[in-house]
Amino acid sequence: MFPITKKSGSTLAAWLRDLDPAALERVLAARPDAASAPEPRSAGELADRLQRPASVALALPRLVLPHLQVAEALAALAPASRDSLGSLLDADDGERARALEAALEGLADRALVWPDGDGLLHMVAPLRQAWDTPLGLDAPLARLLAGTNSDELGRMVAALRIKPSGHTKQKRLAALIDHHGDPERVAALVAKAPAAARKLLERHASRAPERSGFILFGAPPPDSGPGERWALERGLLVRERHRYGPARMPAEVALALRGPGWRAPFTPVPPVPRSVSVSASRIGQEAAAASMAFATHAASVLRVCATAPPARLKAGGIGARELSRIGKAAQCEEIVVRLALETASAAGLLARDGDRVAATDAYDSWAEEEPADQIVALLRAWWTLPMTPGGSRDENGKALPALVGAPPCEGCVQARQGLLTAVSQLPPGEGAADPAELGPLIRWNRPLVDELPQDETPFATLIREAELLGALALGALSPLGAALLAGDVQALAEAGRQLLPASSATARFGSDLTAVVAGTPSTALGTLLDSVADREAGGAASVWRFSPGSVRRALDAGLTPEVLTADLTAVAVEPLPQPLAYLLHDAARGHGRVRVASAACVIHGEEPALLAELAAHRKLTPLGLRQVAPTVLIGRASPDKTLAALRSAGYAPVSEKPDGSVRIERAQRPRAASPVPSPRLPAGRSRPRRTEADTPDARSAVDLSALAARLLAASQGVPEPDPGHRPPDAGDTEKTIAGHARNLSSTDVRQLAHAVDGGAAITIEYVAASGATTVRTLSRLDLDPPYLHAWCHLRNDERAFTLSRIHGVMPA
C-alpha cells in the first residue's frame, strides 16, 4: 500500500520554476490531482503534491512499457547522466536514442523524472521505491556504506591499494565509489580474486538480492567463509553493521560483473500483431449488429430484474443460480448477463433493495429511450467501471457472484484503455487478424494492468466485452470505440445514432404462431409481446412464439381476447394470421371456468348465526368480510388486524396456526431499522450550505494555462514557503487544523481545510492507536478539534478521527 504523502525536496521545485508555461501546463494536465482545489499557490507546493506516493501511484498505471523500463533503469542508477542511462539501455544513438529522449520527455511531462543543472537525471522518491530491486540490483555503494565509519572505509581502500585525497570519511568514500564505478577496474580485481570469492561474486551479480528483513530474535549468522570475507574487505559486498541478514552487492559492482555486453531491457517499438484489411463500412456494420444485439439483450436482462428482482447472497452479490435464471429468461449467455448487470448498476439503473437487487426510477426512463441512447449509457458506464464484468471465475476456478461490490481495480480500467489504445495504433484500414494477438500490444501500452485468471489467452474476456458492446469490430476500432478513447461524449452519442437505427414498433406475425421484430423492439412492443408470447431469440432480430400457456398468461393479467386482438393488430405489418386468431379465442373460451378468491384471513366457527352477525356488523365493515359458507367467512384484512377489530367489537376470537391448533400469542418487541446517522455537529457549528454554484456540474474546469502562469509569476523573486510552514494568510479552519495535525504539511492542511469548508470528500492516511495504517475516504466532514467527525466509506459508518493521527491528505 502506498502511503499518501511525504515531505518534499527542493530539486523538483527548482526545476518546475525554470519551466516555460507550456511545459508546466503539460505537467498539470498529466497530473490533475496535483492541480485540484485548492489550487497550489507556488511551485514548491506543487512539487510537494507531485511527490506524494499516492499521486505517483495514480500516474504509474498510465505509463507505456518503454517509460517504465527507462524509469527502472534510472531507479537502479539515480542520479545518473543521460549518457550512462543510454549506455545501460543500449540507446546511445539512432532510433533507440530518439526513443530514449521521447521516454524521458514523457516522464518529465509527468514530473516523475527531471534533469538538474549538472545534467544528472533525478526521479521522485516514490517512483524509485516502486521497485525493491530495479534490474535485479541492490542499492548503490554510497547508500549501502552510509552507516560505515571512517576506519572501516580506510581498511577497504587499503585492501584495494588506492590512495584517497584525504583521510576523512567523505574522501575515503569518494575514492571507493570512484574505484567501483569503473567496470574495468572491478572486473580486473575480481579476475585476480580467490576462486571461492570469484564464484560467490558472480553468483551475486546474476541474481536479484535477497531481502531477509531485519532479524530481531536469534543469534547472528555464523562467520562468513573466506570468499565472502575477501569481498567484504574490499567493499565488493557489504554487510549490515551488526551482521544481520545476507551480504549485499552494490549496484555498481553487479553491473561491472555482468560484463560490458549486458544491457537493461528497453522495448521502444510496440509489438505488431498480424493484421488484415477491413473497410470502414464493414467495421460499422459489425459494430452496429453487435451493439444492437447487446442493447436488446440488456433490455431483456433489466426487464427480468424489474419484474422479478434477483435475490442477493448472504455474502453479497447475485449468485450463479440467479444469474442462470436471468440468462434463461432473457435468452442470453452468462457474460452478457454479467456485463448488463454491472454496467446497469454503474449507470444507476439497478440498486440494492434489502436482500434483492431492483430496478430504479432511472431504469424506467432508460427503457423508454432509443437503442442508441441506451447503448451509449451502458458504454460510458463500462469505460470507467473499476472491474472486469465478465470475470466469472477466481484463481481456483470457483464461480464469482455478480454485483458483489469488489474493491476498485485501477488495473482493470487501464486494461480497457490499453486495449482501445492498442487497437488504435493499427494501420488505418486494418484490423487484428486474431484478436488474441492483441494481448502483447495491450501489455506494451499498459504494463501494470490486471489480467483475469480465467483467460486462456491474455485479456480474452476484456476483448470479448469490447466486441459485445460494439467498441471493437473485426479486430479494429469502431466509431463507438474511437469516441470512447477520445473521451468525446458528443461524438459517442452521434456514433450511436449513426450505427443503431430507431427502435421498431411493428412485428411480422407468422402462421407458425411466431412474431419477428427486425432490429430492437420498442419498449411498448417488447412489453406487449412479452405479455402474450415467449421470447425465443434476441439480437439483430427478435423472435417470440405464441402458445396456449403464453396467451393464458395474458388473460390472467386481465386482458380480454378482444383487447389482445386489437393490440396485436395495431403493431402487425400485415393482418393477423388465422391460426393466431383461433389460438386467442380458444384460450379465452376455457379461461375463468374455475375461480379462486384471495383472502387475507379466514374466520370459521360452529354457529352459523354468529358468523352471519359478524358479516353484518357495521363496526367490522372495514374488514371486508364475505360469507362463502354458513360457517366460513373470508376477509381482506390481516389476521392480526381482524383479531384486534373483533376484540374491539366485544367478541372473543382466538388465532389458529396453519395446522388448525390454537396459536399462543406472545408480546412482540418491534425493532426499527437503524438509519444511517448524520454526522454530529459540534456546538456552535452549522453545516455549510452548498449553493448551486458548488455542485460538480456547475463548477468550471481548472484553467491550466492560467494556473501555470500564476505559479510561474509567484516564483519570480518571491521566496517560497516551506512545506511545513503555515502562511500568515491561512483561514480559521486552516489555522485550527494546523494547530492539531502536527504530522501534516501546509499543503495537506490546506486541502483538508478546503474539504471541511466546502463539504467535499477527501482521502486520508490514518494511523490508529494500534499503529496500523489505513487509507480512508471520508465525506460529510465536521471539525471538532482535536477530532474530525466524518462518514468513513471504508467502515460504512460515522467515525471520529484524531487530527494528530492523520499523516496524509489527498483529493478523493
Summarize the SSE layout with pairings.
Elements (H helix, E strand, L loop, with lengths): L10 H7 L3 H10 L12 H8 L2 H7 L5 H13 L2 E2 H7 L5 H16 L3 E3 L4 E4 L1 H4 L12 H4 L5 H11 L8 H12 L2 H9 L3 H11 L20 H8 L17 H7 L17 E3 L2 H28 L12 H11 L3 H13 L3 E4 L2 E4 L1 H7 L3 H13 L26 H15 L5 E3 L6 H7 L14 H10 L2 E2 L2 E2 L1 H8 L2 H11 L8 E2 L4 E5 L4 H10 L1 E4 L3 E5 L2 H9 L4 H11 L6 H12 L11 E4 L3 H9 L9 E4 L2 E4 L3 H10 L55 H11 L17 H9 L5 H13 L3 E6 L5 E12 L2 E6 L4 E6 L3 E6 L1
Antiparallel strand pairs: 1-3, 2-3, 4-7, 5-6, 8-9, 10-11, 11-13, 12-13, 14-16, 15-16, 17-18, 17-21, 18-19, 19-20
Helix pairs in contact: 1-3, 2-32, 5-7, 10-11, 12-15, 13-14, 13-15, 16-17, 16-18, 16-20, 17-18, 18-20, 20-25, 21-22, 24-25, 26-28, 27-29, 33-34
Count of strand segments:
21
Classification by helices and strands? alpha+beta
Compute the number of structural domains. Answer: 6
Strand order of the largest sheet: 20-19-18-17-21
Q: What's the average pLDDT?
A: 83
Radius of gyration: 36 Å
Helicity, as a percent range: 40-55%
Low-pLDDT segments, ≥5 res: 1-10, 211-223, 666-700
| Count of separate DSSP helical elements | 34
**N-to-C terminal Cα separation, in Å?**
16 Å
Based on Cα principal axes, name the global outline.
elongated
Strand proportion, as a percent range, falls in 5-15%
Largest sheet, strands/sense/barrel: 5 strands, antiparallel
